[in-house]
Amino acid sequence: MNLSGYDNIKKLAEQDKGTDIFTLVRVSHIHLFGISFIFFIVGIVFSHAYVRPLWIKYLVIGAPFVCLIVDVSSWYMVKIYHPIRMGDDERGRDARMCFAFMWVTSMYQMWIGRTPKAVLERVAAIVG
Fold first, then answer.
1. Which of 11, 26, 33, 35 is the most buried (most CB within 10 A)?
2. What would you measure as the largest C-alpha separation in the chain, in angstroms?
3. Reported pTM
4. Burial zone of 123 (CB within 10 Å; 0-12 exposed, 13-18 middle, 19+ buried)
């Protein structure tokens, strides 16, 4: 920090306006489409997993999309109201946790776990 002279102090005292709107639009476009596509693919695989009660499955599939929208919209809202930034990290953490749960559950059920008893009984009833 150079505090000698008025010009140097004026430079240091300028208010940080954050990222400009054009950069935000470009980056948010990439994030919304790219990350949504990843959540969509993992959600499709996870939709075939055996998870009970069903509301947990629905919540885990839908939550990352809501978290992503809240996260990206907070980038814009922080320009108006700075404390919005406080919840930004939590939404990213929640989305990562849902993604990890979907991925681990799907991989476990596909490669390691046995077919659940309820599924075997349902298949036996269909086959006859």
1. 35
2. 89
3. 0.78
4. exposed
Q: CB pairs under 8 A, 24+ apart, for 32-35? A: 32/68, 32/69, 32/72, 35/68, 35/95
pLDDT tens digits, 77-110: 888 877 777 667 788 899 999 999 999 999 999 9
Query: In angstroms, how far is CA 57 from the centroid of its own chain?
Result: 16
Please check whether residue 36 is in contact with residue 62, taking contact to mean a CB–CB distance below 8 angstroms.
Answer: no
Tokens for 27? 């980056």
Long-range (24+ apart) CB contacts under 8 A made by 10-17 are 17/79
In degrees and rounded to multiples of 5, residue 81 shows phi and psi of: -135, 105
